[in-house]
Design a protein that fits this description.
Layout (H helix, E strand, L loop, with lengths): L4 E8 L3 H12 L4 E4 L13 E2 L9 E2 H14 L3 E3 L4 E7 L2 E6 L4 E9 L3 E3 L15 E2 L2 H4 L7 E5 L3 H10 L5 E5 L9 H8 L4 E4 L2 E9 L2 E9 L6 E4 L2 E4 L3 E3 L29 E3 L11 H25 L1
Parallel strand pairs: 1-2, 1-8, 2-5, 8-19, 10-17, 11-12, 11-17, 12-13
Antiparallel strand pairs: 3-4, 6-7, 7-8, 9-18, 14-15, 15-16
Helix pairs in contact: 1-2, 1-6, 4-5
Bound molecules: NADP nicotinamide-adenine-dinucleotide phosphate.
The site of NADP nicotinamide-adenine-dinucleotide phosphate has 20 residues, from helix 4.
């Protein structure tokens, strides 16, 4: 039977947190493997344009941020494995045994969880049925299908408002549907939105149904939070940006989570389990941005390296 491979640091997730952790760990000459079942870059590759990452005064595409971070980590020796997702992480002495979907295993001295978050669903009739047929969670991927069409964006946070602006490149009208009577997004993004003639607002409204016709989306039914009558808004596409949920399933039995399911970490990225670190959108940090994910990824790698060194010194 072949011996199980032993590595220094396993990083689960290849978004800005995982890629920055990989850069720091591999520059320190630790044997570093990033396990990412999708494209390197994480959620940021589905963002059209990033305006608030320092060093890029004219902005940079989300795809390019992901690609550059990936190349930089790889340049210093981080290895990327994307063929089968890690399905289990179990303590093995003071190490961790990781098993993927193909039952392949690796032992890591330290693990950094950077699995990020996934978009929330509305859980209304028609949402699942019309996914891919007018219902989408990615404006960058699907926006171009809605040239000269009418679409709605659901949500009032940064993601909804930024993506609504992006969709105006294609759609003739973009309705922002928000359950409150004011947006929550960062003010400067809101200002651009208010100045864009293609965007209209449906405030104090919630989607109760995605309505279809001939196998694709034809409209959304909107209830009022202020006692107004329900309305049917005819449209061709619905983009849902109502927040995200942490991808915590690999470690939810191993370390402490917040009430909302985010991994609790200390200021260095350590979870409640020794040798297990976390960074980025899966953690309970307040600010969820590329820059904070990258910074926390660097801290987690630094601490994981220190943990491994201290163990070696005590042997
Ligand atoms: P978010 O900030 O949590 O906003 C979610 C929005 O959806 C809120 O307006 C919320 O309404 C609404 N909502 C939640 N559940 C709903 C439901 N069931 N039905 C209808 N509406 C619902 O999420 P996000 O915009 O995805 O952003 C996630 C994180 O990433 C945030 O920390 C954000 O700052 C960050 N982000 C930053 C940028 C940037 O800096 N450029 C871009 C994208 C995302 P309420 O307001 O009433 O709660």
């Amino acid at each position: 039977m072949p011996e199980t491979e032993i590595i220094d640091i396993a990083i689960i997730g290849g978004g800005p947190a995982g890629l920055t952790a990989a850069l720091y760990a591999s520059r320190a000459r630790a044997k570093t493997v990033v396990f990412e079942s999708g494209l390197p870059g994480g959620q940021i590759v589905t963002t059209d344009w990033v305006e608030n990452y320092p060093g890029f005064p004219d902005g940079i595409s989300g795809m390019e941020v992901g690609d550059l971070m990936h190349r930089q980590a790889e340049k210093f020796g981080a290895e990327f494995r994307s063929f089968a997702a890690i399905e289990k992480i179990e303590p093995q002495g003071i190490d961790f045994l990781l098993t993927n979907a193909e039952d392949e295993q690796v032992v890591a001295h330290a693990v950094i969880i950077a699995t990020g978050a996934v978009p929330k669903r509305l859980n209304v009739p028609g949402e699942a049925e019309f996914t891919g047929r007018g219902v989408s969670w990615c404006a960058t991927c699907d926006g171009a299908f809605f040239r000269d069409k009418v679409v709605a964006v659901i949500g009032g946070g940064d993601a909804a408002v930024e993506e609504a602006l992006f969709l105006t490149k294609f759609a003739s009208t973009v309705h922002i549907v928000h359950r409150r009577d004011e947006l929550r997004a960062t003010k400067c993004i809101q200002e651009k939105c208010f100045a864009n003639e293609k965007i209209t607002f449906q405030y104090s409204r919630v989607v109760t149904e995605v309505v279809g016709d001939g196998g694709k989306v034809a409209g959304i039914r909107l209830a009022s939070t202020k006692g107004e009558p329900e309305i049917l808004l005819p449209l061709d596409g619905v983009f849902i940006f109502v927040g995200v949920e942490p991808k915590n399933e690999l470690v939810r039995d191993l370390c402490d989570l917040s009430a909302a399911g985010y991994i609790k970490i200390d200021h260095n990225g350590l979870t409640s389990y020794p040798g297990l670190y976390a960074a980025g959108d899966v953690t309970d940090s307040d600010l969820k941005q590329v820059i904070t994910a990258a910074a926390k990824g660097a801290s987690a790698a630094f601490e994981a390296l220190r943990w491994i060194d201290e163990r070696l010194c005590s042997i």
